[in-house]
């Protein structure tokens, strides 16, 4: 929540777009706004980890449209050549903002098939089936952990909502298209499955939803006390000179001093 507000508790110190957070403790890297850069980064990290004799694996996610970036192919080449312990996921939600996935070639051959030319197993999964996604990810993780190398997974899904708040999907696709999407809502499907098994109930589901809504609302309220976009407290602007270079170059030191002096006036 604090990261979304770019406030004084934002771990990215206001330098990232909303939801591009990271977590050092959780081994979660931040993505960049530049599509697909996370793919070669994940492969490089996985290779480095393997070279150090560690038992880690990396996982990365991109969209259907992002498969058209050269970084996709660079990553697959290196992952294949070095047998990196990495899981490369393509979330095929049918749309890259207003561009249908067919533009990136997804209706000619599945995106998963692109792995085959590189000697990387490619598998296509119903991305709205939680258990199928879980199973295939475990399989890919097992491959990575046992030194069998990378796996490419295509998750077939659908972006029911708009790409962002500035996007209006009614301008490029039928308004009710999402209702005709055959694979359904993943949460509803898992819920029904668990109810049928006798492991869950409508009441439990409703209670959990209420609890989570409250948790989100409370977290938002608390986060707002550390600053919002329009109300303080605000981040110290001189932060912007830090964390880029290990040792700050002279010209940045000067600029920072200049800025602090201006602020004192
Ligand atoms: C290199 C680059 N080109 C263009 C953009 C602008 N852009 C942001 S999101 C997006 C569409 C991404 O579509 P997709 O890869 O299918 O991912 P999705 O958002 O659907 O998960 C585009 C073109 C960008 N961020 N980076
Ligand atoms: Mg997409």
CATH class of the domain at 31-184: Alpha Beta
Proportion of residues in β-strands: 5-15%
Helical/strand content category: alpha/beta
Number of E-type strands: 6
**What order do the helices and strands follow?**
HHEHEEEEHEHHHH
Helix content: 25-40%
- Summarize the main sheet: 4 strands, parallel
- The helix count comes to 8
Which regions contain 5 or more consecutive residues with pLDDT less than 50? none
CATH architecture of the domain at 31-184: 3-Layer(aba) Sandwich
- The CATH superfamily of the domain at 31-184 is Thiamin diphosphate (ThDP)-binding fold, Pyr/PP domains
The rough form would be described as globular
- Cross-sheet strand order for the largest sheet: 1-2-6-5
CATH topology name of the domain at 31-184, in short, is Rossmann fold
């Amino acid at each position: 929540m604090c990261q979304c507000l770019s406030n004084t508790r934002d771990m990215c110190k206001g330098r990232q777009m909303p939801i591009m957070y990271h977590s050092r403790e959780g081994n979660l890297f931040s993505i960049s706004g530049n599509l697909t850069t996370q793919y070669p980064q994940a492969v490089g990290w996985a290779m480095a980890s393997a070279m150090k004799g560690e038992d880690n694996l990396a996982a990365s996610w991109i969209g259907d449209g992002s498969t058209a970036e050269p970084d996709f192919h660079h990553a697959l080449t290196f992952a294949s050549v070095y047998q990196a312990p990495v899981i490369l996921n393509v979330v095929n939600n049918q749309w890259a903002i207003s561009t249908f996935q067919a533009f990136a070639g997804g209706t000619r051959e599945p995106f998963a098939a692109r792995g085959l030319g590189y000697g990387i197993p490619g598998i296509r999964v119903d991305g709205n089936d939680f258990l199928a996604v879980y199973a295939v990810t475990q399989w890919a993780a097992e491959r990575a952990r046992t030194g069998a190398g990378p796996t490419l997974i295509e998750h077939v899904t659908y972006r029911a909502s708009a790409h962002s708040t500035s996007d209006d999907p009614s301008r490029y696709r039928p308004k009710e298209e999402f209702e005709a999407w055959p694979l359904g809502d993943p949460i509803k499907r898992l819920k029904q499955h668990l109810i049928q098994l006798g492991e869950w109930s409508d009441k439990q589901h409703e209670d959990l939803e209420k609890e989570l809504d409250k948790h989100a609302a409370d977290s938002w309220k608390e986060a707002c006390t550390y600053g919002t976009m329009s109300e303080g407290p605000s981040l110290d602007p001189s932060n912007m000179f830090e964390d880029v270079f290990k040792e700050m170059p002279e010209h940045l030191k000067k600029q920072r001093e200049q800025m602090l002096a201006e602020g004192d006036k």
